[in-house]
Amino acid sequence: MNQLLAIRAFARVVEAGSFTRAADSLDMPNASLSKLVQELEAHLGVRLLQRTTRRVTVTPEGQHYYEKTALILRTLEDVDSSFNIAQSKPRGHLRIDVGGSTARDVLIPALPEFLARYPDIRIDLGVSDRSVDMISDNVDCVIRGGPLDNSSLIARPIGQAAMVTCATPAYLKQYGVPAYPEELKNGHRLVAYVLAQSNRAVPLRFFHGGEKTEIKVEHRVGVNESNGHMAAGLAGLGIIQTFAYAAAPALKDGTLVEILKKWRPQPYPFHVVYPQNRHVSHRLRVFTDWLLESFPQRL
Question: From 66's CA, which of 57, 124, 234, 248 has a CA 20 to 30 Å away?
Fold first, then answer.
């Protein structure tokens, strides 16, 4: 038995919560991974994992073994990384998850510069406004906006995006141009951005004279994806509040008109996020450093 390989296979099953996901992330047949874990259990003389048809759970002995061996694996990865950084260019595969409009308007237009700088790095983008489980989905990092409340993740601020409130000229001609945020409660139709994980509509937020205002109005249409949210606004379905970078082309050509400019919301923070207990590879480190350099200029 290759004990180091078996330990890595076991650790990946624990992190992924699934033999199939672990095997995919290690680019290994499921049967080979299962055999490695069985050999490791036989070598130790204890059951590390409980397997059923629906789920895999870690036994108390398995959890203890994982915590001890995780330190060893991270130390080995740090040693390997120090040699790789000194002797070679970053290479390999990065899996990145990012929201819809941020992918379309910010990250993807900037990627040619990154890939030209680091030609040996391959990128897979998961584009969705839904939250992902970074461990079980085997994602290296996530680019997300808004407040973060998961203490098990490391978050690096990468910039702030301006927010705008806008509607089509036809909508404003029919329903009028509100002069104050409170006027949105008087017969206006709102297209809400709905959080995919909770199905709750995000209230419209405004900031003026040091005071914050939230408007919660029953929406006519709700959309849980940022590109679809923008499309609903462009279709004249109602007033939207969105990122200035996403609305910029439509504001420039007049298909959308900004309203309530004096009450623009406070800037929206963006972070690059990755798991606390996962080794930061050379390729992930250069990607996050590049984001810090490039991202703020495009928001």
Answer: 124
